[in-house]
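Lab intake sheet, docking and co-folding queue.

SAMPLE TYPE: protein with bound small molecule
LIGAND NAME: S-adenosylmethionine
LIGAND FORMAT: SMILES
REQUESTED OUTPUT: full 3D complex as structure tokens
PRIORITY: normal
SUBMITTED BY: R.K., bench team

The fields below were copied directly from the construct record.
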Amino acid sequence: MLARHHRDGESFVELMKETYDNRFDDTFWTAWQQWIEPVFAEQTTVLDLGCGPGLFIKELAGRYPGVHAMGVECAPYMLEAVGELPTGCEIIEEDLQNPRLPLDDNSVDAALAAVLLHEMHQPVKLLLELQRCLKPGGRIYIIDWVRGPLETYIHHESKTLKVFDPATSINELEDLFIHFIEHNRFSVDDLSYLLSCTGFNVLDSRTVRDDRYAHIVAEKA
Ligand SMILES: C[S@@+](CC[C@H](N)C(=O)[O-])C[C@H]1O[C@@H](n2cnc3c(N)ncnc32)[C@H](O)[C@@H]1O
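RESULT FIELD (auto-filled):
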């Protein structure tokens, strides 16, 4: 599922690098400072779940010297693209479908799951594992696609594809419509429901970019 969803692995790595600044813009960092920084401890550990090529953990290390930033990833092309890591960063190679992370109970201050949950067969085992690893009061910041109208999706995702032109190939159309389903996995309420059923209290929830993405902050109860 992952390999198909990413289409071509190397190109997907490049896409994640090119679009990094859009995801982690000033609005994101303001919210991160508001909701996540307050739970930082003297020796802070932050998990980046589905860290891709590792840009976020590298930025964390630059912004917060002394932080222990751990990326978790399973796709070989992403792991290969991580390259050299600054002090304080490390990568855990793990499939998050049913993870057992090499971390003590109640040892993690905060976690990020950026555009990860919609790519998983089920996110329940991951949220339960996070519940184990986070300190009481530890927080997760989730960014993900959320359900929206087909019209908005086509407007944003098919700039060059003439969707309703009879000459457009069936392969291009299938690719677009399959991605539409995959990017429409969960509603904002679905994500809140999953979090509350796995022991989290949602602290903040908002949508951005034409309501196509949610930013949700939740705390281990
Ligand atoms: C859309 S990319 C986002 C990458 C990064 N979080 C970012 O925002 O730049 C989603 C990442 O989650 C990873 N991923 C998806 N399912 C995973 C799983 N079961 N275990 C570990 N990583 C997973 C993918 O390989 C990919 O690198």
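REVIEWER NOTE: The chain has two domains: 2-147+186-220, 149-183.
SIGN-OFF: pending second check by T.M.
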